[in-house]
Amino acid sequence: QVQLVESGGGVVQPGGSLRLSCAASRRIGTAYALDWYRQAPGKERELVAGITNGGATNYLDSVKGRFTISRDNAKNTLYLQMNSLKPDDTAVYYCHARWIVNVEGASVDSWGQGTQVTVSS
User: Fold this and answer.
1) Can you give the pLDDT at residue 30?
2) Alpha helices in 32-106 (DSSP H)
3) Any bridge partners for residue 116, and if so which?
4) Cα Rg for the chain, rounded, in angstroms?
5) Torsion angle, CA of 66/46/119/113, rounded to 10 degrees?
6) Is residue 1 pLDDT above 90, yes or no?
7) Where are the beta strands (DSSP E) in 1-121?
8) For residue 61, what are the contacts with CB-CB under 8 A and spacing of at least 6?
9) CA distances to 21, 75, 116 from 70, in Å
10) pLDDT tens digits, residue range 41-58?
């Protein structure tokens, strides 16, 4: 099974920055899509940012202009740069990857274990 390992979470003051990393055990250059999700206590998991193998990106409206998703295929690592952090950004952040595994279009998904981001004074 493909392993995804997140890192970079921590505690930061409002207005601060963090960069999350997600290291994959398989080449992310072959992934169909790479995403970051987050889940706050008592809330459903939501898509924060995604990037396709074609380079298209999408963001949750509340993080547009503050977060940037990127990837380094050579390092098999996905990143989420988070700037101007707000208390509402507090959540466990999960990376996700999807691969298309056959010509019929079947896919497999892999999830990281999550990294905690806490934004508080």
Assistant:
1) 86
2) none
3) 92
4) 14
5) -110
6) no
7) 4-7, 10-12, 18-24, 33-39, 46-52, 57-59, 67-72, 77-82, 91-100, 107-111, 115-119
8) none
9) 10, 12, 19
10) 999 999 999 999 888 999
